[in-house]
Amino acid sequence: MNIQPTISYQSILRAISERTGWKSSFAADAAVFAGLLAILYVLFASGRIWFAPFTPVANISASPRALPLYAAYSLVRMTIAYLLSILFALAYGLAAAKSERAAKIMLPLLDILQSIPVLSFLPGVMLAMVALFPGRQLGLELGSILLIFTGQAWNIAFSFYASLKGIPRELDEAARLYRFGRWQRFSELELPFAAIGLVWNSMMSVAGGWFFLMACEMFVLGQRDFRLPGLGSYLQVAAGAGDTRAILWGMAAMIAVIVLLDQLVWRPAIAWSDKFKFETVEGVAPQSFVLNLLRRSGILAAFYRTAVQPISERVTLAFAARSTSRGTETRSVRNEVREWFGRVFGGLVLIAIAWLAYRALASMAELGRAQLILLARDAGLTFLRVNAALLLGALWAVPAGVWIGTTPRVARFAQPLVQVAASVPATALFPVLLLLLLRAGGGMGVAAMTLMLLGTQWYILFNVIAGAMAIPTDLKEATRVFRFQRWERWRRLILPAIFPYLVTGMLTASGGAWNASIVAEYFHFQGETLSVHGLGAAISRATDAGNLPVLLAATMVMSLIVVTMNRTLWQRLYKLAATHYKLET
Fold this sequence. Notes:
Elements: H1 9-50, H2 67-98, H3 100-115, H4 118-132, H5 138-150, H6 153-165, H7 169-177, H8 182-193, H9 195-211, H10 213-217, E1 218-221, E2 224-227, H11 231-241, H12 244-273, H13 289-295, H14 298-326, H15 331-364, H16 369-406, H17 408-423, H18 426-439, H19 443-454, H20 457-469, H21 473-481, H22 486-520, E3 522-525, E4 528-531, H23 535-545, H24 548-580
Antiparallel strand pairs: 1-2, 3-4
Helix pairs in contact: 2-3, 2-5, 2-6, 2-12, 3-6, 3-22, 3-24, 4-5, 6-9, 6-22, 9-12, 9-17, 9-20, 11-12, 11-18, 12-13, 12-17, 16-17, 16-19, 16-20, 16-22, 16-23, 16-24, 18-19, 19-22, 20-22, 22-23, 22-24, 23-24
């Protein structure tokens, strides 16, 4: 009897992989090498401009041929600002999560910073950077990067803080049992547990950077006009001139960059972060062609073995040795040192705040009672628009985010779409949107509300998607086994699981709405200024006129509103999420 060998589909793929493995490795190495060359070239070209003589008013070409170079310049600024945002978020989130006393000050302060519009940071940041590098373009470039940073950092910091507070008790006890040092705990518990939230909030933060790129690359400060070559300045020049053709070319270039980033950066990051999902049953993992290609690269594998892995091991051993040596100290001595350090640092911060408050009050002393009453009215109107935008954004973003996050097939095509939609600056489309709404009889008030919604809803959507993707597969299977109905499934699994992410999304969306008010309530169009009453319009008008007292007063009023909301609402919701909706056994 002849026995025919069984040839399976997997064996065929394995044989093909073995025969063509060297080809795929060569292709991966070639792609990595080409990517490194492209990055080095862009950095070299950007460096030549950065260290060139100072030219505050750059000539922004309206030709589509200039768009590739403008896109590269903007991408470099966005990347540097994002790296700074990640470092800030990790340090700030860790400090706030480790100390309840510090969190009472740090969280409201972070909420204030993420709610203050970019234009409120603009005068101090730009004048300081230009004065620091008076003869070089470097000052203007660093100022633009720091302004982009102010539109990215706060969202990532809130996400990391929320993830740290949501670490399950059993994982925390395991880390204590095995005596993890600070570095080992950070690298093997805290950072992996927060990976999914960090990736999705990084996508949202970068999208927010694209959203405010127009304000960060071209702005007017009193009688001085600052311009930097980039996509943001290109779109702002086109929007100000009402050049629809240039707007479409600029939007097409920005969408092309966003799609490339999605394929080359974010989709591989999402596929990589899926391995950190807290579950006992393996689900369907997202795939990325670029990630698979990089994993086959011999160059990256050799670099990891010879450089990354040895350095990581040495750092881990160094921190472990330091932790062991510190273990001989008494706990009371360490607590006393920390307490004294905290007192000294807190005292210095209070002195700096008191001095700045004194200077601000002295500047605002020029304002009359009538101006203060107008600011109070403007604050009330903007407050109503912000909360209406939050409500409208949550009504559609929560179900849509759960649908995308729990359905891998939908996520594959929906993720790049929402990434593009969130990144497209609504200010570039605002002229067309404004004309349509004015013709429909909506008026500037409806247009401002629409623009604030466009700057708000994506924070909620991205956080809900991250929360839905982090739901363990075994819990989903349990709801199917027990045949939960749709509403019961939402009530017992989905809403409790996404609640911490939803709180972060609503909080950062609130800051996004306050930020968006500066362009939603005050807009330059074809030589005219269209505005409605509101705090954002007051800030934009004061920035255009160089009126520092009104700018400071409007920013202070906004800060008071944000602090009140943080103490009365957001802190309580964060505490509820950390105590009642933590994923643990």
